[in-house]
Amino acid sequence: MTISYLNLKRQYAHIDKEIGQALEKVLKRQEFILGKEVNAFETEYAAYLGTKYVVGVGSGTDGLLLSLLALGVGKGDEVITPVNSFIATTLAITQLHATPVFVDCDKDTYQLDVSQVVDKITKRTKAILPVHLYGAPCIIDQLAQIARKHGIYLIEDAAQAHGSAYKNKKLGTFGDINIFSFYPGKNLGAYGDAGAICTNNNILYEKIKMLHNYGQKSKYIHEEIGVNSRLDDIQAAVLRVKLRYLDGWNKKRQRKVDIYKNNLFAKYQEIIQDGVSNYHILSIEVEDRNKLQKFLKNKGIQTLIHYPVPIHLQKCYSYLGYKKGDFPIAERLADKILSLPIYPELKDKEIFYIIDQINAFGKNILR
Ligand SMILES: *Cc1c(COP(=O)(O)O)cnc(C)c1O
Predict the structure, then answer these.
(1) How many whole angstroms separate alpha carbon 322 and alpha carbon 318?
(2) Ranges of residues in the chain whose predicted pLDDT is under 50
(3) What pLDDT is stored for residue 367 in this prediction?
(4) Cα(87) to centroid of ligand 1, in Å?
(5) Which candidate, 328, 329, 336, places its Cα nearest to that of 291?
(6) Looking at residue 263, what is its pLDDT?
(7) Whole-model pTM above 0.85?
(8) In whole angstroms, what is the distance from residue 26 CA to residue 68 CA?
(9) CB distance 159 to ligand 1 below 6 Å
(10) Which of 56, 161, 296, 356 is close enough to 171 for a disulfide, judged by CB 3.0 to 4.6 Å?
(11) Does ligand 1 lie within 6 Å of residue 67's CB atom?
């Protein structure tokens, strides 16, 4: 049996007709930039989330950059962010010449450890930029409280968390500005790069609409130095089709996760109370992780590691002066975690095959 980590062809086989029709509509209209599809998707995604405004942008990373830009984050400012994330979260901060101030993660939820945040706040702190890692919520209401109390901004990196919720409220609606990625492999994925920014704040909304479109207020009139980063109509058309399936797909993922958890006794990411994950990533902690990964590869099973090198140990950030040992939990996790195939179209018998192979490798490696 061969099981790839993700198989988008199976998803496409279910929706190919609808996608074809949606694309054809755009092609007939020949309207590709800031057209009807983009508008419609922004409205529909805002309604889905329960937020006032959505602006489609070129990618999740661009969404982060534009959010920080809109909040006026720049040189000399500090942004508190988890060390255990995909690097894009930090890239946006350093692109604007601001300083990332890293926080270690919790050993059970893998999320930014909220108890370490207040100590990191200084006069220069402009924002907290937490991540909902693997699509599960971090303790976002506490972070919102901290941000409010200290007069700093909160930006949710919900790039992995489409449809996830905390206390019956969708993730991506708690911060001042929040972002999603529609990278093809995300739970809601476009057919290319795409992302979105969400906010309830009218002033920030207007600012982002301007900034993502060359900083123009009206055609050829520029009040701010902007960028070109827009969701295009082709991608919006794809996302509109897929958005209708998102909840169903997430439910299927939940069912697959239940099969794993009921049959493979391992240490999984803990989901906080009142939290609902979309299970973008399902990982287990394993001793001898690299050996198991190789073993599974030989059995036809592809696995990934999210993420093998914590951000503070990446070469590109050596100038920040962090060293090994600074964030022991994230560093330990990076050596132990292994992400298993988890997608709506994964067959039950494939999951049981994966479980059997892991158990064959040795149950004692699971923690
Ligand atoms: C995917 C991802 C991003 C970046 O999104 P892109 O659309 O690929 O630019 C940012 N943060 C996290 C946590 C992600 O998983």
Answers:
(1) 7
(2) none
(3) 62
(4) 8
(5) 336
(6) 94
(7) yes
(8) 32
(9) yes
(10) 161
(11) no
